């Protein structure tokens, strides 16, 4: 299967950049969205004024509000709506799909019921279609401006991986392959929690050593959780692990970081989300991961502290003090297990 026609489901910032890369690569691409005004702006002025203002989109990119027309002839369908909408949107076109049409999730979130990642939701709804995940350090606003970036296509299907590499690789976007679907996807979802934590740290004016400590201990915590759930920890050394963690924890372009920053400045969670006006997946992911960590007895002090700040009104400064005085721990648990320190 060569990818000649693609559909992108979702009219937000990331859906638009994926659709634009495909169009830049001369793939016939239709982007589906609910908003008629944005669809018309993409078709006539080649911009998405709501989510990527100032970015000139490829004039060949077509937008539509007709979901079935968008997916009908697509060789591959990129699903780029927030995680809370994926099941509903995909269910509404699943019965129309032919088994050779592939589905690729770009959504970095978790479904509450059953703790399902998006590729698992896709596989459940469309059990006969090939499934993959695209994840990595991919701030949409930079890629929209065609600044250089790299990502990971993860799938157990090697033909699908190669086809997506062909479809998305270009002078400003490099696509690496992985067969660890679960690890790649978990990395993309988990790092959003730590971007919120990094937002607190930045708002409190903490130093560079502090920021480095938080990012590194976040990686330790993420991989501890992932291993407990059966993922390959080595995946976390790649772009979808440490790569995405670093960019999201360091950049004010990250919406999750901005939510943490606003709360660190004293705003309420409700106001922080309202001001953002875009999706910050980490807020719900934090709730679901905390519950899972408690259920499976996985040590996740940053998750527990972030939860207290976001949902129970704890002060970031007090939580930070508590973390600094916790039990002694191992730097790299895969080298020195906790029980051996
Ligand atoms: N923006 C970024 O830099 C990146 C985002 N992602 C992930 O991509 C996913 C989508 O994010 P963005 O495009 O950035 O979000 P966004 O907030 O920019 O846009 C979300 C879009 O989905 C639409 N939407 C929401 N619910 C819907 C429903 N029920 N039916 C139809 N459309 C619906 C909204 O109207 C909006 O057009 C998220 O999981 C995010 O974590 C992944 C990589 C980078
Ligand atoms: O996933 C992203 C970058 O890789 C985008 O992060 P935010 O959702 O926090 O903006």
UniProtKB/TrEMBL annotation:
NAD(+) binds at residues 10-15, 140, 255. GO terms for molecular function: glycerol-3-phosphate dehydrogenase (NAD+) activity; glycerol-3-phosphate dehydrogenase (NADP+) activity; NAD binding. This is Glycerol-3-phosphate dehydrogenase [NAD(P)+]. It catalyses: sn-glycerol 3-phosphate + NADP(+) = dihydroxyacetone phosphate + NADPH + H(+); sn-glycerol 3-phosphate + NAD(+) = dihydroxyacetone phosphate + NADH + H(+). The active site is at 191 (proton acceptor). Keywords: Cytoplasm, Lipid biosynthesis, Lipid metabolism, NAD, NADP, Nucleotide-binding, Oxidoreductase, Phospholipid biosynthesis, Phospholipid metabolism. One of its GO terms (cellular component) is cytosol. Sn-glycerol 3-phosphate binds at residues 108, 136, 191, 244, 254-256. Belongs to the NAD-dependent glycerol-3-phosphate dehydrogenase family. It is found in: Cytoplasm. Catalyzes the reduction of the glycolytic intermediate dihydroxyacetone phosphate (DHAP) to sn-glycerol 3-phosphate (G3P), the key precursor for phospholipid synthesis. It comes from the Bacteria. Coiled coil: none annotated.
């Amino acid at each position: 299967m060569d990818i000649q026609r693609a559909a992108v489901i979702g009219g937000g910032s990331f859906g638009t950049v994926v659709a634009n890369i495909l169009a830049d690569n001369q793939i016939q691409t239709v982007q589906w969205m609910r908003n008629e005004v944005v669809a018309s702006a993409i078709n006539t002025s080649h911009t998405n004024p709501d989510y990527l203002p100032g970015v000139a989109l490829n004039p060949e990119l077509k937008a539509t509000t007709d979901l079935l027309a968008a997916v009908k002839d697509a060789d591959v369908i990129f699903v780029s709506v927030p995680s809370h909408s994926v099941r509903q949107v995909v269910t509404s076109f699943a019965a129309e799909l032919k088994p050779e049409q592939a589905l690729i999730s770009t959504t970095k979130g978790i479904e509450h019921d059953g703790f399902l990642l998006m590729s698992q939701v896709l596989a459940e709804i469309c059990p006969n279609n090939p499934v993959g995940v695209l994840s990595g350090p991919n701030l949409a606003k930079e890629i929209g401006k065609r600044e250089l970036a790299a990502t990971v296509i993860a799938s157990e299907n090697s033909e699908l991986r190669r086809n997506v590499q062909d479809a998305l690789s270009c002078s400003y976007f490099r696509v690496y392959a992985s067969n660890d679907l679960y690890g790649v996807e978990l990395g993309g979802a988990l790092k959003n929690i730590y971007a919120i934590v990094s937002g607190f740290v930045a708002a409190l004016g903490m130093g560079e050593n502090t920021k480095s400590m938080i990012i590194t201990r976040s990686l330790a915590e993420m991989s501890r959780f992932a291993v407990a759930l059966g993922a390959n920890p080595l995946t976390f050394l790649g772009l979808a692990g440490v790569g995405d963690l670093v960019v999201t924890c360091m950049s004010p372009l990250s919406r999750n970081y901005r939510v943490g920053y606003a709360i660190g400045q004293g705003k309420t969670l409700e106001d922080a989300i309202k001001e953002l006006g875009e999706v910050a997946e980490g807020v719900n992911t934090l709730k679901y991961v905390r519950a899972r960590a408690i259920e499976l007895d996985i040590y996740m002090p940053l998750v527990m502290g972030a939860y207290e700040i976001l949902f129970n009104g704890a002060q970031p400064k007090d939580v930070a003090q508590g973390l600094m005085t916790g039990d002694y721990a191992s730097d790299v648990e895969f080298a020195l297990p906790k029980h051996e320190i």
